[in-house]
Amino acid sequence: MKRMCRVYGRDFASRRVDAITCTPTCRQRLSRGQAFAYLAGLSKREQKVHREMHAGYDRLIATVKRRNAFLKDLRAEKRAEKQERERQRQLPQTFADIGFQYVREPQLEQQRWLRIAVTGAIPFLVKEQRNDISAEVIFELILEASPRRRQDLTIEQVAKMLDELHASGDYDRIVAEATTTACAACRNP
């Protein structure tokens, strides 16, 4: 955009929208208070016309700056809206994951408790010298010790836990340790 230098009065083209001087030298003179130095040799009427022209440049610059600020804010709002849409899109999956954890956590806690109860019941039955260490016997023993668990516990769960202990080899280890402890107790009354 072509405009007139505020210090020398020459026409110049600038890449910047807010440029009011043609060179760094003029910019320095402007900062020292030499604005409109070229008007000194002009008539009052011409001075008034040139001042109005520069006031028009100032209004144009202010308008362009407001427009640019508006566009910047608009882009920022659009980015924020896009981020919010993305967050809203991901939110159900996040809550589904959290919900799955909340649903899964009590199940894991129940599994831990059941494992502890079954691995605690086996040594007790070995020390009692019971020949029948079945899921039904362990189930009844657990319910005697924890009657509140009656609605949470089934024989199938106990049988499944026994199968897991057999498969991992922990059942034989628990029985062996309980037998060794029981025999040691018999020898040393």
Set out the fold topology.
Elements: E1 2-4, E2 11-13, H1 24-31, H2 44-127, H3 135-145, H4 155-168, H5 170-187
Antiparallel strand pairs: 1-2
What does this 3D model show about the protein?
The chain is built from 5 helices and 2 strands, in the order E-E-H-H-H-H-H. With 189 residues, the protein is mainly α. The chain folds into 2 domains: 2-75, no CATH class; 98-187, no CATH class. It has a two-stranded antiparallel sheet. Helix 2 (44-127) crosses helix 5. The model has no long low-confidence stretch (mean pLDDT 83).
Which features does this protein show?
189 residues, mainly alpha, 2 domains, 71% helix
Task: Classify the beta-strand content into a percent band.
Answer: under 5%
**Strand tally, please?**
2
Major β-sheet profile? 2 strands, antiparallel
Structural class: mainly alpha
| SSE arrangement, N to C | EEHHHHH
Q: What is the global morphology? A: rod-shaped
> How many structural domains in the coordinates?
2
Question: What is the CA-atom radius of gyration, in angstroms?
Answer: 44 Å
How are strands sequenced across the largest beta sheet?
Answer: 1-2
Mean pLDDT: 83
How would you summarize this macromolecular structure in one to three sentences?
This protein is 71% helix and 3% strand. It is mainly alpha-helical and 189 residues long. It folds into two domains: 2-75, no CATH class; 98-187, no CATH class.
